Amino acid sequence: MKAAVYKGNHRLEIEEIPKPLPQATQVLVKVKYCAICGTDVHAFLYDVPPPGTVMGHEYCGTIVEVGSEVTRWKEGDRVVGGGGAAPLGSLSSFKSPRFNFRTMGFDAKPVRAYAEYIAMEEWEPLPIPAGVSDEDAALCEPLGVAIHAVRRSALKLGDSVAILGAGPIGLFCVQAAKAAGAKFIVVSEPAEVRAKAALELGADLVVDPNNDAPVDTVLAATGGSGPDVVFECAGAPSTLDQAMNMVAREGQVMLVALAWEPTELLPVDWIGREISLETSFATTPEDWIIALELLRSGKARTEPMVSGSSFIHLDDIQEAFLELTRPSSQLQMIVKLG
User: Fold this and answer.
1) Candidates 3.90.780.10, 3.40.50.300, 3.40.50.720, 1.20.1250.20; CATH matching 146-279
2) pTM for the whole structure
3) pLDDT (tens digit, 9 = 90+) per residue, 94-105?
4) Rounded CA separation 13/270 (Å)
């Protein structure tokens, strides 16, 4: 089968690799779409994955083969590539008490979904509900990441929210916060196309941090008190400190972005407000289930994040990754494999 294999030194090459043979407890999924995640782009940029790795974890497809002990699935079932609950007692590197994503995050599964087929344990995938398109289902995982952040946050019905960064995770945070009852949402985003998408998806105000002082502008928009919860989804050198400076007294900053470089903070500016900092990483099975339901009910949507120009072929993945490592207004890119 064809796969995009990471060779090291910022290079993805399309190769023929062995098609997985599902074991007795596994299913074989023919991948249809695999979205390009910012995490993979950062890994590419900082040369993190071991050579030989096939990345890609935001995907959907169809089951084409089932192992002899599999009872839950049949050929032809549409699935998203994850979200299932692991059997009680099973171990995951993500649950390690000293888990470090930068050094450990690409070792557990060397062949993932920038490939035509992927083998999965019976418990791993989730069914795609009727009424949810394959295109939407491919983005279930990043929507789940946003839902996980909102569910871990202190957000209450009627709270005001700021979201720094309107990439895919930030735009899904807009929708998840809206669904959770936020009364006012302000987004900080310099790219015009992303700013426009934020407004279309439910933001009440968008601030351009290149032209407006984001802290002062957000404070003014919230009557001087600051937002109750700030979701930091940008990971830029200055955005975590901005979040800490703008959040309300005894408010909460939820760190969602995976910053790969040192981030400067000046705690004396905000420590006196007794604010809290919480982190959010990845998802739980419940987040995937909620994500699929929000997509099914129309309470979350992928437009205008996804358009016809969002889709690329596997052969074009190297150039797509290079493009995404540079300053870009691109909303979402999805590799079409099916």
Assistant:
1) 3.40.50.720
2) 0.96
3) 677 888 888 888
4) 47
